[in-house]
Amino acid sequence: MFDDLPKGFRAGAAEAGFKKLGRDDLGLIVSDCPAVLAALFTQNVFCAAPVHICREILHNYGTAQAVIANSGQANACTGEQGFVNCRMTQRMVAERTCLTPEAVLPISTGVIGAQLKMDLWAAAMPALIESLGTRDAEGFTRAFMTTDAFPKFAMREVSLEGGLVRLTVMAKGAGMICPNMATMLCVVLTDAAIGREQWQAMFGRAVEATFNRVSVDGDTSTNDTILGLANGASGVAVSKRDELEKFENTLTELLSMVSHMLVMDGEGAGKVMHIHVHGAMDDADARLVARCVGHSQLVKTAIYGGDANWGRIVTAVGYSGAHFNPDEVSLSLCGIERFHKGQPVNDDKEEALDMLLKDKDIQIDITLGAGRGSYDFQASDLGHEYVSLNADYRS
Amino acid sequence: MFDDLPKGFRAGAAEAGFKKLGRDDLGLIVSDCPAVLAALFTQNVFCAAPVHICREILHNYGTAQAVIANSGQANACTGEQGFVNCRMTQRMVAERTCLTPEAVLPISTGVIGAQLKMDLWAAAMPALIESLGTRDAEGFTRAFMTTDAFPKFAMREVSLEGGLVRLTVMAKGAGMICPNMATMLCVVLTDAAIGREQWQAMFGRAVEATFNRVSVDGDTSTNDTILGLANGASGVAVSKRDELEKFENTLTELLSMVSHMLVMDGEGAGKVMHIHVHGAMDDADARLVARCVGHSQLVKTAIYGGDANWGRIVTAVGYSGAHFNPDEVSLSLCGIERFHKGQPVNDDKEEALDMLLKDKDIQIDITLGAGRGSYDFQASDLGHEYVSLNADYRS
After folding, report:
1. Hey, CA dihedral for B93, B96, B101, B105, is it positive or negative?
2. Residue range A337-368, pLDDT digits in tens
3. What pTM does this model have?
4. Fewest CB atoms within 10 Å of the CB: A31, A44, A93, B102?
5. Are B375 and B289 in contact (CB under 8 A)?
6. Element housing B123 (H / E)
7. Which of B41, B43, B44, B45 is the best residue to mutate to test the A interface, defined by the most A CB atoms within 10 Å of its own CB?
8. Nearest residue on chain B to A301, judged by CA atoms?
9. Is A394 within 8 Å of B308 when comparing Cβ atoms?
10. Of A112, A122, A152, residue with least CA distance to A14
């Protein structure tokens, strides 16, 4: 058992050859006992077969005991055959682990519209089962990476009255310059014992405060899935209000770390815009503004180029649909005010700003002067590496 | 007087040096008599000073007699000084042409947040006035080009009962790979005599069917303006129903030609996606789908790379917010069906498709099976040329 997995969980991985990667492309997590399940899924109408099946498990059972993850094929837009294949992968795992198929949560990432390669699945299964207990958090994470530049995982121990519990988060995808259908898969494991409603509720809040506030390209994948398994193997229950709060804070912190890793993923050229909107009529309006700025191609390319073209940011604010008086709007780039209550700021700070724009992290502060609403959002820039990676992803 | 301008209009241009272009950057149109004005403006909250002033003229007077156009500075986000400068440019033209300042429509494009260079304006004014009558439609159009690869203009004669009338359309901007704040400026001139309400109404319909259906990057500029001046100098009135219809059809055809030129503007690598959505619940839903596909970074980069990654298109359909049953959705790329009623099409046409994807015009047909709503939309791809041009636009 590895230290970076909570008690009662074992991880394995195998190279099935789904995409001729020369590396693991199939990963498995098994819990020694049934785990309480929390989950959130993509809002895309075309959700993939594994998303449908995980959603069924969440609603019909509320517990699960294993996660099977593959890269190479997303098993989305694959029709009835996609479901048949997905259920087959559940059975393959179930048969060899003495679980019911409905205890096995499938997650997939890769090319859309391609069927799972069932012969390769069958061939890889013995090695995958054999490998259980030989992989740590990083090893499992690597098995479902696609174009990720590095594996994304994080672990914390939480000290509660009843003893220590562990939380481990493992995720892939939505790298800064390599969105690969922007699919984001994330598995959260804990050995704490926690009630189903409480687990799902805190899960929803933690995801809203973290993963839902990062963006690479604004595309919502067919496969986005976040699973949380709480197996109680630590023997420590989280139920008192202050302990639930402490546990949720740690969960949010871990998801925040990992979601930042997603948007940070890149190969040197990429930058992260940290967009802070204040003074909006309400939080929803602040969110509109932040997302509009974070998704603007013209803002993204200017930030990529280190161009202090703040007018593009103001433009995105202007078409966001939020309510405000343009004469009350101010904007700072890297802490240097460029637009003050509807007027451009003319000073000698252009050169200093040009230097600051070479940083990897770019702060954008927008004040609307319309109320107390605020929203923070992280978004990646848009550069040549993004185009190169995405212009020819399938080939 | 040039043949490609309607009767009673003269055009001029001058090199003021607003952006050290070594070419004309200031253009002027003057009509011999007051013209009935129709106009449409950007929806951006931060609309530029010239947009505010043109809107005032439209509402307070409904007629105008001149258009002054500059590139280099957009005069947007320039506060009170921006208004003072803009009104000064109206007066400069008015004084030298015996017009009232309120008869002069200002349009600007260029960097946001920069003030107009009033000394250069004053210095260029004599040459600009002197040049009136020496430029044709192309000459005027060139004066307010920014990163456009070619000038965009078109002319038609319409034969009516009372005689011939002319329609000339001159536009800049929103080039395929070089959106330059995506600003689109367009001036439509006609020597027909037409009523104010009829002119504005047909103008609105024609723009909705043309300019509002093309996209480069989804950013809505602070300066987008379309002006229509009808001076009646032909002595031919357009008022009968069938003649109004004929005239409007020609207007729509011309705007369609010019809006296609906008999205076609590029330097070899660019492609145009022709997105056709059918079978939506209503036209509004079809529009949602078409715009979502046309704005998806992942779709745009795949088309740029000639990658038959149709799953990205289905994904964009899926998060568009339109209402439909995913099992009824079909999709064709370049006329080859890839997705049929929720199932992938497996055949041997991949190679043929790869060849077709090398074309400059890419047809995307999406059928939702939810009703009779439809929408057509043109959008550009996203490639290295876009990034290069936009990463360092200001410098």
Report:
1. negative
2. 999 999 999 889 989 999 999 998 999 999 99
3. 0.81
4. B102
5. yes
6. helix B118-130
7. B45
8. B391
9. yes
10. A122
